Amino acid sequence: MTDMSQQIRDVLGEIGYNLQDHGKEFRARPIYRDSDSNTVLRIRKDNGNWVDFKENISGKFEELVKISLNLSSIDEAKEYLSNKIVIDKESPKYKPRIVERRILSQDFLKNLKKDNSYWNDRGISDDTLEVFGGGVCNGGKMVDRYIFPVFDYREKLVGVSGRYIYKLESYSKLPKWKHIGDKFSWNYPLKYNIKILKNLKSIILVESIGDMLSLWEAGIKNVIVIFGLNLSSSIQNTLLRLDPDCVIISLNNDQLKKVEGAGNSAAYKLERRLLAFFDQSQLKVYFPTKNDFGEMSKQEILEWAEKI
Predict the structure, then answer these.
(1) Which of 43, 123, 124, 224 could cross-link 50 (Cys pair, CB 3.0–4.6 Å)?
(2) The CATH number of the domain where 140 resides is what?
(3) Do 138 and 249 belong to one domain?
(4) Range of 254's domain?
(5) What angle do CA 235, 304, 127 make, to 5 degrees?
(6) What is the rounded distance in angstroms from the CA atom of residue 167 to the CA atom of residue 70?
């Protein structure tokens, strides 16, 4: 088997396909629709081009990845493939590419002010904050933000995430949270809770570090932050590796604010995407009882957890 066909096999196997080898092509049952045929989907080994004979649809490999993972765009599919295989612009075939994640200088953390008052006022104790090694930045791009360092499995600093600590007026264009680094590659806070996730076999997905801190303060530490409303391929792969018995999707309950309910619709979209890899019984959409966990008291969070 050539390198290209092996790479295609590896990607499709990671997505959830059970492939049959048919010489110059693979055959499989499509996972993006119901089907009882194990050969109706054909994927070429040399370039990943595919045909669904029943639906009479076809396309390039990234398009198959898009519909199989229920992604929102081709760009998102290309991001998923970016450290696996890549299209050579001068050839229709794919070639492997090594992607180096950006590493930040540890100098970024040298002058952080250990002022926890912002989070203390929101019910987060010094003991909880001490775990994550953050502090207030006094200058540069993250000035006036309480920043949290993000490390990879090699203990390299791959990013920082910062919450603005002063009141933002309605006309202000400053974002509450600001990130530096390749956010799509982050798995946070696995540096601190990977053993907990493995032992409990249950994972709660939340939007922000603030949500995670509120849960952690209440003793609930089996949490992964997705930094927004979309699930990165890196976190998706982490979920597959950890193979939890239950994934609890707890994005913000925006409908309580009488807005468009972005967190609510995103949660169900995320659930549909994960159904390609997990049984329905393993997935649960369970919103905070208020807009987010930061607005809930410790007792309210414990009562929320008791009902799961």
Answers:
(1) 43
(2) 3.90.980.10
(3) no
(4) 187-308
(5) 70
(6) 38
